[in-house]
Amino acid sequence: SICSTSRISLSLLSSSQDPIFVHFTLQLKAEKAANGEMGSVSLKIGDGTARFKRATLCSSAVNILMLFSVITTNVFALYAFTYSPKHLQNNPLPYSHKNVSLISEQVSLILREIDSSQRKLAQMEKELLGYDTLDLSRPNLASELKLFLEHHQLPLGKDSRTGITEMVASVGHSCEKSADLLSQYMSYKVSGPCPDDWSLAQKLVLRGCEPLPRRRCFGKSVPKVGLSSFPASLWKPVSDKSVTWSGLGCKSFECLNGKKLTRDCVGCFDLVNGYETQKYVKARGKNDFLIDDVLAMGSGGIRIGFDIGGGSGTFAARMAERNVTVITNTLNIDAPYNEFIAARGLFPLFLSLDHRFPFYDNVFDLVHASSGLDVGGKPEKLEFFMFDVDRILRAGGLFWLDNFYCANDEKKRSLTRLIERFGYKKLKWVVGEKGDAAGAGKPEVYLSAVLQKPVRV
Fold first, then answer.
1. Transmembrane ranges (predicted)?
2. Of 147, 220, 269, 294, which has the highest C-beta tally within 10 A?
């Protein structure tokens, strides 16, 4: 026949240079028939070429053979999938039930793992969100606290300007960790007098529960006896009867003046005979800068300032004499600082240093800080604090670091490196030693500086 002269060759060539290279060549060629040339087909795989010519009777036969092979293969595959041994045909149910039970057990295990993961995720969200997920169903929780923490829908729906749909109570996230104290703080008679518990409120603030929830009760009213008009009030002694002494060890300013409350407050409530009358206008050492000298560095642009850890408010009083308004940040640690500052006709701010300053960006011409800058803890905590100070200080404004106590050289170097990161211009920089307040012991190192905030693009 015509196919008798056909030649089918299969060659496998391996290159000695590349052992992985394999070249297949499949060539089918039909020789000339006696009565004429019928055609040929040549297919090469491996060199990227393929050439096709007219089909011959031999190629048709090959196609028929391939079709028969495909049909036969499918028949055998169908038989293999549908075949079941005889010993299983008689009793197939036990094996089926066993497989179904195994699959069901695995699915149940996966579902339990998913449920456990969801519970862990919910717990993490609760720890992160804090008060928003405070368990209001716990026993002995004050009803006023539950009412305050409820979300209230806006009566007209979504607000077009802010995008909010409900009003949420503003309470510190750490309040959840002090739920018992918070519930005690919120236990009172509605529209009645508030409990005398300012010390409890301050304890919550120092634990990070800030801001505190609002209350529907009347605060204790203390008559302010002997208040003087401004500016005479700046240096008039404050009456013991005009402040609240509950929760404090001392019950008079005379008692407080005999104690060292902080490094910056030794006799700081004595406005007649103490050092407060000379502070910022008369220097006792090279670390003590005078207010007039610092104001001159501001080129007359100092109008409003912020005093951090301002003690009894003497810095704000000296600035007020020069027509500069200063807000003094302080807490009532062992003394009624806030009431004393207010009695002098100045502006106290009851706020912990862990709280973000409630001021808009770039609003202050001057920020004054002393050892109150030492917030303690990790260096990152001081960084957060410094960045917030930088935020509220306007470009060209002054940062006055006043007698910052350096416990060791490493602390001084770390603070110096941190300040240099902000790129402030050093208008004045003094590192000096001073004896302690008792006049004994090893001299302590203090850093004082006046820095100017740069303009950043």
1. 61-81
2. 269
**pLDDT value for 123:** 65
**Can you state the angle between helices 409-421 and 379-392, rounded to 10 degrees?**
40
Whole-angstrom Cα distance, residue 56 to residue 440? 117
Q: Distance (Å, rounded) from C-alpha 188 to C-alpha 186?
A: 6
Q: With contact defined as beta carbons under 8 Å apart, do 364 and 397 qualify?
A: yes
User: In the prediction, which pLDDT does 441 show?
Assistant: 60
Taking residue 361's Cβ as centre, other Cβ atoms within 10 Å add up to 9
Instruction: Give the end-to-end CA distance of the chain in Å, rounded to a whole number.
Output: 92
The Cα 231–Cα 305 span in angstroms is 18
**How far is residue 404's CA from residue 401's CA, in Å, rounded to a whole number?**
7
- Mapped to the 3 state alphabet, what secondary structure does the chain carry? CHHHHCEEEEEEEECCCCCCCEEEEEEEECCCECCECCCCEEEEECCCCEECCCCCHHHHHHHHHHHHHHHHHHHHHHHHHHCCCHHHHCCCHHHHHHHHHHHHHHHHHHHHHHHHHHHHHHHHHHHHHHHHHCCCCCCCCCHHHHHHHCCEECCCCCCCCCCCCEECCCCCHHHHHHHHHHHHHCCCCCCCECCCCHHHHHHHHHCCCCCCCCCCCECCCCCCCCCCCCCHHHHCCCCHHHCCCCCCCCCCHHHHHCCECCCCCECCCCCCCCHHHCCCCCCCCCCCCCHHHHHHHCCCCCCEEEEECCCCCHHHHHHHCCCCEEEEEECCCCCCHHHHHHHCCCEEEECCCCCCCCCCCCCEEEEEECHHHCCCCCHHHHHHHHHHHHHHEEEEEEEEEEEEEECCHHHHHHHHHHHHHCCCEEEEEEEEEECCCCCCCCCEEEEEEEEECCCCC
Give the C-alpha distances (Å, rounded to integers) separating 344 from 269, 273, 306. 11, 17, 17
Q: Does the reported pTM lie above 0.70?
A: no
Exposure b/e, 157-172, CB count within 10 A at least 16 = b: eeeeeeeeeeeebebb
One-letter amino acid at 224 equals: K
Structure tokens at 212: 């505190």
